[in-house]
Amino acid sequence: MNVVLDDLLQGYAGNTVINRLSLTLRPGVTALLGPNGAGKTTLLRTLATTLPPRAGTVSFDGVVLEDERSARRVRNDVGYLPQEFGFDPRMSVADFVTYAAWLRGLDAPDRDRSVSEALELVDLVDRRRMRMGKLSGGMRRRAGIAWAIVGRPRLVLLDEPTVGLDPRQRLQFRRIIGGLDGSIVLLSTHLIDDVAAICDRVIVLHGGVAKFDGPVAELESLGREDLPGHSALERAYMHLLPAEEQQL
Amino acid sequence: MLGTFEAPLPAAVEEGQARIPIWRLLTMAVAVLPVLALHSPLAELEAVATRRFRHGQRIYLAATVLGSALVFLGGAAIALHPLVLLIIARSWLAWFGLALIAGVLLGWRLAWTLPVLVAVILFYWGFAAGEYRWWEFSARPPDDVASLLLSLALLCAGLIAYRATPWRRRTWRRWRGRSLRPDRSGMS
Amino acid sequence: MRIFWLHVRNSPVRWTVPVLVALDLAILFLRTQYWVGVWPETGAAAQVPAYLLGVLVAGAAAWAAAAPVRRGMQEQLSVAKVHPAGVDGYRLAATTAILTVPYLIGQMVAFAVTARTFPPGVLLWFAYALLGLSVTFLSVSLGWLLGRFFGGGFGAMTAALGWLFVLALTNFLTGDFVVVTGRPYLAVDAFTLAVRFGCLVLMAVALLWLPESGRRSRWPGQGLVSVASAAALMMLAVVTPPVTNRPVPEGEGRICISGRTTLCIWQEQEKYRPLMATLSGRIDGLPTAFTPPPEVREFGLDARHGLDERLGVSPPHFYILEGSPWSYGGMISTEIMSSTFAWRDPACDWGRMSDADQLRSDAVLAWLEAYLVGDVTPDYSTDAPSAMQQAWASGRRVAAERPLPEQFDWAAGEVISIRGEYCAKR
Fold first, then answer.
1. Is the C or the N end of chain A the one with fewer CB within 10 Å?
2. From residue A10, how far is each of A79, C400, C407 by CA, in Å?
3. For residues C234 and C169, is the Cβ–Cβ distance under 8 A?
4. B111 to chain C: which residues are within 8 Å by CB?
5. Is there a single domain that holds both residue C208 and residue C292?
């Protein structure tokens, strides 16, 4: 599968948030970096088909999304986890993920298998009957990831998925993402370590424009020693910011 | 004028039906609304706020309560008999107290549940043998003492429930524990 | 089905069921139980809680409708492949199922109680059960509509009171939306039931097309069209008259007890046969000064019942109201007095009847009523003029204090005296 954005313009009210962005997403893990307000969440929501583009096109395997019907047609291939996701605290983990599977259009025979697979991937099988409200923050986020990946959607969009996770949980998260072979994973994050550990590609957004789009190693090579940062990636990220933002 | 319309409801009376004037229902709504408004999306943050917050909340509650009551009574004074205003005022106390109790127990957004449940009970069983029962505070005559005392009791219960923060409940439990424990002083 | 049960299991209103069941059964049993043993009365009594519970049901439905907004799940639901109407459809179905359970339990319990004797007319019970079901569906629909619009606690309270406003509106428009009794001469109108359920189905469709809260409409005017459609359908559902007169049955459709006066009741009222037999025996025992009518039928067993009684066209009849012997005893005694005194007899000059004699006849009427019922303490209250009430009291005192032969002598004497004063000899 591939997802192509062509000259995408996106925004709210009178503001432009994404400014003529063109890129192609292919299977693999892509990080979406950028300061707050850069347009990361807006891009994810556009790819999740919740926000129709104001201009430009979004196409899935060559099919351009033009209306509600075409958007809904591709949603069985899209898994989306918002930064703040909602849940019913009295719902069990299994019911929560089963609900996601149903919303994604999975039929009964596939649904059970997919739910089990997703729970196994996020290591919540032994907590499947536990209520969402009783889970710790980290487990709840893993349940959210299960929500996004149940049924192995070909496009997985994760908005700040590791916020609030402790180091062990972040390592578990990396293992989960590593298990999503064949899917396009777009991961919005502020955590450079996660980018370095699991991502093949990184897109740096600033002011709605892609300042960088390429392999992680290539981004690393842009870093200068005179810039702030504790790693090559951090310094490379700072290099991409406007001059007035490069110093702390 | 809307208050003079009547809602037919089944009742435990001859012929099985009573007509409840809308003003009795509006009184409940007006009393419950300010309590519903106590709900805040920031509740978890406000739980650790200083006295300033609780003080502000009390002022807010008092202002919304008095404001809504005055507006409603003012409107009712135009359309309804003066004696009916006394009934409205009395029942308003009870509805407000019930709303506070429900809000404390179930959450401010569910403050309507207990008043509505009590209303159903009042409307169905509240009239018998040609008069309203003593506990039918929303319809007894304006000079009825028993229903007034009941309304005041419900109001007090509601205010106590409102004041019963987790720390105060702990203090009260300790007081009760101390008063129940036998006095060991002077025993050998 | 599994997804349906998932929605039921996780519905925010499932905790209301025990409360509503308790309230339903309390309304059904904690008043009178005259309905036991008569199918139409059973069905009607068991559908009464639907109107009262409707207040809480509407509030609960609104609470359930607003759940996705309350839980912050709108973003996740907006990415669903399942059509929003499908997502909402399951939620609405689960909410309706849960909130209907208390009503159905009440009907089942009422059915079980009357089924011990299983009198005729069970289909009449079923029709009333469906009527109450339509009322419950209506309250759920109203709650859902207002919950989607206003959300959270405000929506729930608005829905609860909104239900009462709808009842007030029906009172203003038609006056007969709320059905509280199942008199045997009435039956639920099948056409009304069909219209109501049809409207409810269409209303559910309209509700499912409400735009998602906080989101753009899928097409222009979506919200307005959905709301307007739902409101119009609700109005159509409530203005259709719920009950209609039953056709007069022949033969086995009625139970008649022969005597000086033949008393006939609807076959559904089979449980009153022994009471009617007792009453018939008491009529047989009346002094010959009394001239009971040859036949008195329960209302509805004659096509002329209900016609203008001033014209004397409506034949003698009586009602059995909530099983009260005073209801039928009182009316039968009135018919006996009418027949005895022959108020329309041109040979009598009742126009010059004095007030004192009027009160004497009132006393005889009260005595006759007490004699037929077999009790001296009425179960009804009255605001008749005090002189009339005193006359009634004196008649009942005769029934309470004197032995039966003396009562008969007194009553016969009064009848003969009063008739003799105003009627030519017959």
1. C
2. 21, 92, 98
3. no
4. 153
5. no
| Nearest CA among C17, C44, C49 for reference residue C30 | C49
**Is residue B154 included in any domain, yes or no?**
yes
pTM: 0.86
Domain of residue C65 covers 2-245
Q: Do A80 and C67 touch (CB under 8 A)?
A: no
Q: Is the four-CA dihedral A105, A107, A111, A114 of positive or negative sign?
A: negative
Q: Are B32 and C156 in contact (CB under 8 A)?
A: no
Residue B123 lies in domain: 2-180
pLDDT of residue B187: 43
Chain C residues touching B29 at Cβ < 8 A: 157, 161
What is the tally of structural domains in chain C? 2
Residues C171, B39: C-beta atoms closer than 8 Å: no
- Could you tell me if C178 and C88 lie in one domain? yes
Tell me whether residues B9 and C178 touch, CB distance under 8 A.
yes
B116 — contact with chain C (CB < 8 Å)? Answer: yes
Chosen domain end from C213, C245, C277: C245
What pLDDT digit, counting tens, does each position of C101-127 carry? Answer: 999 999 999 999 999 999 999 999 999
- Which residues, including other chains, have CB under 8 Å from residue A199's CB and lie 6 or more apart? A29, A30, A31, A187, A216
pLDDT truncated to tens, each residue of chain A (248 aa)? 889 999 999 887 778 889 899 999 999 999 999 888 888 999 999 999 888 888 899 999 888 888 878 888 888 899 999 888 888 898 999 999 999 999 888 888 889 999 999 999 898 999 999 999 999 988 999 999 999 999 999 999 999 988 878 888 888 888 888 888 889 999 998 888 888 888 889 999 988 888 899 998 888 888 777 777 787 778 888 777 777 777 77
C23 CB neighbours in chain B (<8 A) are 117, 120
Contact A194, A231 (CB under 8 A): no
Q: How close, in Å, is residue B1 to chain C by CA atoms?
A: 13
